[in-house]
Design brief:
The chain is mainly alpha-helical and 76 residues long. The protein has four helices and two strands, in the order E-E-H-H-H-H. The longest helix is centred in the last third of the chain and has 16 residues. The protein is flat and about 60 Å long. The mean pLDDT is 81.
Amino acid sequence: MAKSHDFEFAITPDQCVAALPEIAFDPGDEESDDGLRRAELQQSQLAIAELNHVSETALVQSVVKHALGKLPEFEE
């Protein structure tokens, strides 16, 4: 049994993950041209990564600040 913080577990989290069957991912050719399906998958990826427009903008601004030292000023 694995010990963690004075608790005993019959199985570790790594053993649980290793015991899961592999999930096959085989997108068909008919789905490759489906724009709506691709958009839904992209939206799902953003949700899983907990990204939205605000957090994505903050990440881009952070990268630009790191690369340039400051954000460029926008002319109107």
